[in-house]
């Protein structure tokens, strides 16, 4: 080894702290210059002396710190944070007054990290503006931050009624749902996702930096159109901020499409064990795991009602695991029959794919897989007779075969026999794109409705094949199941909000009949009890709701965003319905409007499942295009 190399290394290690100190001194000087430009703008502010004192303390603190990468990796962090906050305030004269508590309004698609410094330009203050049709949910975020001091008093939060210009109450205060955002661990990093109403009154230390609150508001059907206004006030001791809220209600209700377009699959084991433990668990108000892999949600009925209210679970012929089916005998129970009567459909059986047979579904009385499938055929026939005896013979009947993983002639024969004997339609799910078309072909003469896992759709050859099946008359759905983050419709929590929401524009673009979300409560016990909770390999996929010992479950940012995505679909469906109505009536539309509607319905701004605009602004722009086209088309129809 050359003698020069050790000398060079030694010199470098000796000089590096000095070089680093010089670098930080220059950075401190640069930030001082920025502060000198900003502070004069606060000359008339009662808080000027406090601002000056704070900046001086930050400068001295930064200068006095020794550079130690372990104890203090970034000594000027406090100074940079203070500089950024003052610069943000300086650009808004109405926010330069006294007081320590500030807020800004944030888009629902932006994921706010409370432990990160506030950098860049922010519009402090301002009005939270929302627009909604009847039967629409709208979301936004309010982000609080203490400028220089801890908020030691608990935060009190109060919303007012939303009233019109004449003072009439359009929506009561309790229509505004406020949640504190909690964080969970995904791939070693903390991400915001669960939404809880329980921690709204905690004090807010400056060290926490930012505290985002989720605002969710539902506009019921028939709500009077027009502008209504109210406010949300945050108070901590003597400090408070009031966030003005302006809601524009559109002059129509948003219809629900006749055909169901989205389904969330609850944890099937929750259904199977529910009758055994439900009452006990509801009394205890605590989570219970019958085994380490398949925990049970004790508030299952409440959960399903909530999901139905949110529009995520619509009781469609796509939900493969009907509530409380006796999986050992495949006999329908009372809950299944109630479901059949209410929704006019019934799952006669839900079959596992064959490699699961030995581990999960063999009950000890069947010696061979042939016996197992014979029993299923017999059960389906008896279930069909039960429906007939109750006057439900005309309901739509389905059999679901889960995750086909092999060309199984026994399975094809079984499904064919069920179809011939009961008239049920067959639903299948393919989750193995690496096996190509050969896996699918043997089932095509038998199945009516095919789910493909999302991994099929980013393969151009398979996508073309799937669209060909669709043209031949097969109903196609996509099954969103721990899809890679590179895939557009990712439901994982550690991606941008646009990725969580855009799948419904895509579902419309490609004409897929349904979106099936893999799961909403696949809560593994050891992950639930971690602190903070961890989401496992799916990074939140399968956890569209989070377990909670008090409420049973909590909604999430993703479940709220997915609901907005479903509303995107509803808007497109409504526009298409009115456009077809106009065509049938021979309505003469301006050519520019006609072309605009056709372009909107084609969703041409999305090039492919992995090529689409990633900015929330573009997604909102497209929603605005839909709304403007709807309003123009409605006006034209009303004149006709």
Question: Can you lay out the helices and strands and say which pair or pack?
Answer:
Elements: H1 4-38, H2 48-64, H3 77-90, E1 101-106, E2 128-134, E3 136-146, E4 156-159, E5 162-163, E6 169-171, E7 176-186, E8 189-196, E9 211-219, E10 226-236, E11 239-253, E12 262-264, H4 268-284, H5 300-310, H6 334-343, E13 345-351, H7 357-361, H8 369-389, E14 396-404, H9 409-422, E15 425-430, E16 449-453, H10 460-471, E17 475-480, H11 497-501, H12 503-510, E18 514-517, H13 525-528, E19 546-548, E20 552-554, H14 557-584, H15 591-602, H16 616-639
Helix pairs in contact: 1-2, 1-3, 2-3, 8-9, 12-14, 14-16, 15-16
Description:
The chain is 37% helix and 21% strand. The chain has helices spanning 4-38, 48-64, 77-90, 268-284, 300-310, 334-343, 357-361, 369-389, 409-422, 460-471, 497-501, 503-510, 525-528, 557-584, 591-602, 616-639; strands spanning 101-106, 128-134, 136-146, 156-159, 162-163, 169-171, 176-186, 189-196, 211-219, 226-236, 239-253, 262-264, 345-351, 396-404, 425-430, 449-453, 475-480, 514-517, 546-548, 552-554. The strands form five sheets. A seven-stranded parallel beta sheet has the order 12-18-17-16-15-14-13. Strands 1-3-9-7-8 form a five-stranded antiparallel beta sheet, covered by helices on one side. α1 (4-38) packs antiparallel against α2 (48-64) and α14 runs parallel beside α16. Residues 5-17, 268-328 and 358-363 have low confidence and may be disordered.
Any descriptors?
single chain; 640 residues; alpha/beta; 5-stranded antiparallel sheet; 20 strands; globular
């Amino acid at each position: 080894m050359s003698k020069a190399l050790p000398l060079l290394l030694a010199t470098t290690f000796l000089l590096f702290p000095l070089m680093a100190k010089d670098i930080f001194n220059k950075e401190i000087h640069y930030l001082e210059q920025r502060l000198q430009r900003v502070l004069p703008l606060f000359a008339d502010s009662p808080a000027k002396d406090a601002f000056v004192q704070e900046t001086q303390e930050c400068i001295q603190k930064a200068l006095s710190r020794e550079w130690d990468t372990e104890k203090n990796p970034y000594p000027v962090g406090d100074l940079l944070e203070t500089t950024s906050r003052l610069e943000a305030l300086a650009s808004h004269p109405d926010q330069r007054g006294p007081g320590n508590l500030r807020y800004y309004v944030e888009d629902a698609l932006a994921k706010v990290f409370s432990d990160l410094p506030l950098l860049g330009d922010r519009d402090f203050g301002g009005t939270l503006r929302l627009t909604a049709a009847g039967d629409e949910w709208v979301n936004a975020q309010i982000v609080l931050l203490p400028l220089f001091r801890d908020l030691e008093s608990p935060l009190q939060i109060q919303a007012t009624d939303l009233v019109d210009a004449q003072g009439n109450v359009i929506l009561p205060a309790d229509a505004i749902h406020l949640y504190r955002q909690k964080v969970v661990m995904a791939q070693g990093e903390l991400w915001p996702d669960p939404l809880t109403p329980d921690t709204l009154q905690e004090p807010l230390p400056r060290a926490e930096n930012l505290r985002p609150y989720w605002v969710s508001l539902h506009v019921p059907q028939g709500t009077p159109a027009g502008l209504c206004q109210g406010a949300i006030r945050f108070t901590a001791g003597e400090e408070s901020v009031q966030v003005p809220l302006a809601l524009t209600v559109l002059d129509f209700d948003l219809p629900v499409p006749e055909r169901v377009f989205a389904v969330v699959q609850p944890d099937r084991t929750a259904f199977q064990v529910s009758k055994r433990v439900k009452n006990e668990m509801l009394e205890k108000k605590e989570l219970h795991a019958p085994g380490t892999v398949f925990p049970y949600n004790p508030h299952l009925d409440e959960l399903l009602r909530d999901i139905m209210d949110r529009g995520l679970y619509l009781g469609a012929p796509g939900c493969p695991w009907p509530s409380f089916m006796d999986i050992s005998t495949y006999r329908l129970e009372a809950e299944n029959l109630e479901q059949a009567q209410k929704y006019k459909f019934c799952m006669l059986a839900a079959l596992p794919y064959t490699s699961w047979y030995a581990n999960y579904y063999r009950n000890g009385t069947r010696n061979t897989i042939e016996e197992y499938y014979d029993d299923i055929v017999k059960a389906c026939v008896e279930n069909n007779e039960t429906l007939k005896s109750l006057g439900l013979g005309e309901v739509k009947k389905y059999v679901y075969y889960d995750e086909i993983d092999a060309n199984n002639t026994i399975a094809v024969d079984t499904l064919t026999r069920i179809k011939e004997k009961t008239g049920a339609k067959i639903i299948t799910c393919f989750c193995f794109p690496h096996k190509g078309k050969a896996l699918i072909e043997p089932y095509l003469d038998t199945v009516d409705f095919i789910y493909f896992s999302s991994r099929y759709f980013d393969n151009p050859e398979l996508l073309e094949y799937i669209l060909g099946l669709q043209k031949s008359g097969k109903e196609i759905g996509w099954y969103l199941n721990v899809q890679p983050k590179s895939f557009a419709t990712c439901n994982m929590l550690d991606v941008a909000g646009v990725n969580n929401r855009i799948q419904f524009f895509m579902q419309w673009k490609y004409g897929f009949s349904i979106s099936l979300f893999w799961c909403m409560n696949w809560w593994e016990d050891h992950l639930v009890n971690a602190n903070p909770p961890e989401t496992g390999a799916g990074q939140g996929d399968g956890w569209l709701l989070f377990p909670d010992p008090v409420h049973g479950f909590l909604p999430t940012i993703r479940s709220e965003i997915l609901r907005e995505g479903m509303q995107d679909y509803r808007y497109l469906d409504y526009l298409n319905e009115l456009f077809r109505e106009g065509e049938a009536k021979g309505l003469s539309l301006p050519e520019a409007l006609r072309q605009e509607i056709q372009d909107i319905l084609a969703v041409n701004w999305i090039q492919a499942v992995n090529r689409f605009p990633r900015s929330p602004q573009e997604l909102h722009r497209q929603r605005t295009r839909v709304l403007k086209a709807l309003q123009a088309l409605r006006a034209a129809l009303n004149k006709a």
